[in-house]
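FAQ: What does a multi-protein file look like?

Like this. Sequence, then tokens, then the next protein.
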Amino acid sequence: MRSAPFSAENLEKESQQPGMRLQNSKMLKIELNGEAMARVGSMVAYQGQVHFQALGSGGIGKYLKQRLTGEGVPLMKVSGRGDVFLADLAKDVHIIDLEPGDALSINGSSVLAFDSTLAYEIKMVSGMGFASSGLFNCVFTGHGRIAVTTEGTPVVLNVDAPTYVDPQAAVCWSANLQTGYHRADQLGLGTLIGRTTGEAFTMSFAGQGFVVVQPSEERPGQGSGTQQQQGGMLGGLLQ
């Protein structure tokens, strides 16, 4: 059979080593031999003996709760042996390797999957109290891989001067950075900030490190495409 979808570049990529890798720029492949954590609803295909367990708020269940879009990000545990393919509304997928001593803070809406060897903790982003959304992010530490998504090709900003980012455009950043929130009018931007989202604040970063910024903004209540697909199931997990 001859057709563009059957070209060599679209064939399943094989490897001798288990773990996560890019099938293509929009899809993650996990060659599973054990377990991994993934965003609920992100599975698009799998082969082999694979089990999926949604992790809610009870028992051992942890979930990434981020408030930048007013949504939560429930997790599922993926275990067994086989190949699992994950995606989120055809967003770009990027793999980040964490080494011992690294600490990365990630906007919950950008988390697609991560190795179960990594530890994560929900932390409040300092600087605003409870006056605004966008207070909670997840800090990952340990040794392993994380897959994050972006809407479009991101830019990595080196924070060597005060840096300001629209909260919905911030994907992840060095956990050692000092963060805060500033009203747009304090920066002389007025209503120009968040023209799409209505965001009245900009997020500030100071110190030494980096910030990854996507060329798009999550709309309030938009959340992740995989969350929308789950509908009422997500509501039950987040209660």
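And here is the next protein:
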Amino acid sequence: MEKVLIITGGSKGLGLGIAKKYHKEGYRVISISRSKIEKLYLFEQYQCDLSKSESIQPVITEIFSHLDRNNTSNLTLINNAGDLGTVNTIDQISSANIAYTIQVNLTAPLILNSLFIKLSKDWTCKKQVFTISSGAAINPYESWSMYCSSKAGVDMMTKVIAKEQKELKHGVSFVSIYPGVVDTDMQTVARNTPKENFKSVQRFIDFYEHGDLLSPKQVAENIYNLDTSGELKSGRILDIRNT
């Protein structure tokens, strides 16, 4: 029986770390991202721009057409792709950038979750969706209005869909995960933002200079261990630093 992981943003950063970890543990890994890693043959890769809603359904439908529900014991989707957006006060951000960031961080996961549930409706295997959220969902950072708002939305999305699926015979489990402060491109953007645009920039510089950033590999191992230990109960909003 096959264990399958579908992950968005699996070509770099935390997504790549998670993809590698699950592949190492015997999963068939399928990445959906804007870019492909040409020399990485460990897992299947599909190109998709999640900022374009119309491009999502054809890709996820194509992926499911190559899966065998009778030979799958575990089907997992990880909504990992995200964008910090323009770091500045909301009055300084263009309408286009606001729309783009919310689309990638919140609308795309909603669409993916909807399609995942529909396409796996008759599957009797273990089915679960993890969404990479952030402490920014509950801690307001000036100049991060889109990121904080979209992550708060992701958490409520998780709670609502978990309730919808709870009583179903073959329902899907939904969990939001706060991974902590991870050494990714997003952190680089945050600490390189001018102080006049981002008042908390020194905090992020300190994370880097004091060696407080977690590596994608560390976080991926934490997530996998929580997954296999049964800690990721449906409806949970979990900060893995507290586990």
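Q: Is there any per-entry metadata?
A: Some entries carry free-text notes. For the entry above: The chain has seven helices and seven strands.
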